TrEMBL record:
The keyword Nucleotidyltransferase does not apply. This is EamA domain-containing protein. Residues 9-145, 159-288 form the EamA domain. GO terms for cellular component: membrane. PANTHER family: ACYL-MALONYL CONDENSING ENZYME-RELATED, SOLUTE CARRIER FAMILY 35 MEMBER G2-RELATED.
Length: 307
């Protein structure tokens, strides 16, 4: 198969993943009208596990699951406790407290959070460029959280903003530790969800939330689980494998925020605030600035070198 054909397929898979991810903020908010955050974690995780098992069955790799768990049960339990259990529990709680437009915009800072966490966890150096990007991004978070009232520093919902930021820590930390994961990605993700499901079930039982949910809630959880947590990950992974340029596919993710805001307005019915647009512009600007290559200034030869 030609390289050009592979690149077209990579773009198709990448755009499909980005479009699917653009719908999930609206899906979160609508589903939370019928389910509590912990119920949404439980039912969406179950739906995601089913979708991942279906993919493995289609690939003829289901028999590998048991052996992989025996080899990697510790990492499966640990990573599964972080994602999906803790991450989505915190994220859905943030969505239950904040307008979808604010929660999803703040969530886009996770890429910057990963850069900052890599300093203590991976012993990487923090560039001046990263520090400046952090200031710009978190200024955007302040604009969104205070709805433009920066001088008053009065947050529309302080707990919601803190939970949204905490979710970026969990997500970034998950991907940092995932760099040391030797499991095949789809197999590893299925093991994570299988390992986390008992935690979600026990958490709901402990809080008395195993009552039968409304069908609308189950439908929303199935959509969230299949697209946000399961099938879309495989699309994105396929795009990254087929592309000649990882950066060209990775940059497609910047199409998602505005598409997501449009859907939030049309489907959820939220009026998009000017402060959200300004804050999101700052966040995306900071992330783009972080990606720009640094120009190295070449030293000029001295006219009269010292003797």
């Amino acid at each position: 198969m030609s390289s050009a054909h592979n690149q077209k397929k990579a773009y198709a898979f990448g755009l499909g993943a980005v479009l699917a991810w653009s719908t999930v903020a609206s899906a979160f908010k609508l589903s939370l009208q019928y389910l509590s955050p912990m119920q949404l974690v439980l039912y969406a995780s179950a739906a995601s596990l089913l979708s991942l098992l279906s993919i493995l069955a289609w690939q003829g790799r289901l028999p590998e699951l048991a052996a992989a768990f025996r080899r990697h049960w510790k990492s499966s339990l640990l990573l599964g406790a972080v994602n999906p259990f803790a991450y989505y529990l915190v994220l859905f709680q943030a969505y239950s407290l904040l307008p979808a437009q604010e929660a999803q915009a703040i969530n886009y800072t996770w890429a910057l959070t990963m850069t900052l966490l890599a300093v203590p966890l991976l012993k990487q150096k923090l560039r001046l460029q990263d520090a400046m990007a952090a200031l710009v991004c978190y200024l955007g978070v302040l604009v969104i959280g205070t709805r433009g009232q920066l001088l008053e520093l009065h947050f529309s919902n302080q707990l919601g903003v803190l939970l949204a930021l905490a979710s970026t820590l969990l997500w970034a930390g998950y991907w940092i530790f995932n760099t040391r994961d030797t499991r095949e990605p789809v197999l590893g993700l299925a093991l994570n969800f299988a390992s986390s499901l008992p935690l979600s079930l026990a958490w709901c039982a402990w809080h008395g939330q195993l009552t039968p949910p409304a069908w609308q809630g189950l439908a929303g959880a199935a959509y969230v689980g299949a697209l946000e947590m399961g099938f879309t990950f495989v699309l994105w992974l396929s795009a990254m494998k087929l592309t000649r340029s990882t950066a060209s596919i990775a940059n497609l993710i910047f199409l998602s925020p505005m598409a997501s805001l449009l859907l939030i307005h049309l489907i959820v019915g939220e009026a998009i605030l000017p402060s959200t647009l300004l804050g999101l512009a700052l966040i995306l600007g900071g992330l783009l600035a972080q990606k720009l290559p640094l120009r190295r200034v070449q030293p000029q030869p001295l006219a009269n070198p010292p003797s």
